[in-house]
Backbone:
């Protein structure tokens, strides 16, 4: 077992697949990496979070910008960029997903990270590279960060949108794991799914990691996990029992306010290459 990629300290084994750094609390798994992602519902929250990200980027930039999204999935972020009239290129590693995206959108490239340097023809192309729930699925993150520098132009920036190990949901699942209820924790790592999480950062160790690899943080915030409205409708599309739906939508409504005061579950950071 190698030492921590952030602070070089030793890892401690937490369960059969997760290791934690003693010092900075970075978590990594030995789950088998894979392509593709599970079908996501058309989530109101995700879309609103994408709108927040785009709004932030637009507040930073005055000129027209070119964005590359890594792992575009079903293309929701591309759609929001199109609405905002931002030049967006989507990408996918997986052939099947790639084909589906190309049917819907114009600028889609095949890209898996880390890439094969000999085939890369994207030098100095993009102002922004964005990872929406993708960074935590990648191997060889140090190599990835160094390769991204060649794709970014001189003022290029990286946007990271990923789950936090300091968030309320993660902490609660970890507590449950300690008393023997492991399914929530396993679900957060996407254990047993086609593309599980290989790493789990918190806001602090993520900043440290990017800084160590030649990026300067220019913005740090978080995104919401649960929306206030339309929870009932969403639940009712999978659970038919109205009483159960009312019960859970009430819990989610309460959680909407909880998440404002408790540690946030989704990290939203922007870094500039130096
Ligand atoms: Zn560490």
Residues:
């Amino acid at each position: 077992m190698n030492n921590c990629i952030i602070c070089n300290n030793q890892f401690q084994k937490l369960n059969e697949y997760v290791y934690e750094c003693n010092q900075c609390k970075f978590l990594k798994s030995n789950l088998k990496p894979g392509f593709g992602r599970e079908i996501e519902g058309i989530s109101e929250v995700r879309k609103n979070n994408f709108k927040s990200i785009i709004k932030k980027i637009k507040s930073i930039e005055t000129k027209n910008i070119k964005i590359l999204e890594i792992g575009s999935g079903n293309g929701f972020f591309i759609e929001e960029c199109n609405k905002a009239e931002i030049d967006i290129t989507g990408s996918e590693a997986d052939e099947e997903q790639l084909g589906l995206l190309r049917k819907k959108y114009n600028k889609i490239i095949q890209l898996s990270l880390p890439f094969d340097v000999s085939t890369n023809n994207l030098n100095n192309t993009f102002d922004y590279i964005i990872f929406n729930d993708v960074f935590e699925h990648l191997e060889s993150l140090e190599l990835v960060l160094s390769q991204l520098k060649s794709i970014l132009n001189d003022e290029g920036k990286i946007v990271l949108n990923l789950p936090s190990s300091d968030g309320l949901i993660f902490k609660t699942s970890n507590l449950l794991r300690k008393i023997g209820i492991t399914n929530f924790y396993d679900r957060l790592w996407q254990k047993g799914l086609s593309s599980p999480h290989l790493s789990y950062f918190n806001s602090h160790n993520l900043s440290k990691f990017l800084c160590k690899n030649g990026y300067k943080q220019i913005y740090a915030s978080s995104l919401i996990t649960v929306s206030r409205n339309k929870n009932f409708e969403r639940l009712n599309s999978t659970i038919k029992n109205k009483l159960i739906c009312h019960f859970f939508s009430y819990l989610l409504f309460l959680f909407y306010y909880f998440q404002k005061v408790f540690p946030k579950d989704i990290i939203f950071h922007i870094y500039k290459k130096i």
Remarks:
- The chain has one domain: 11-273.
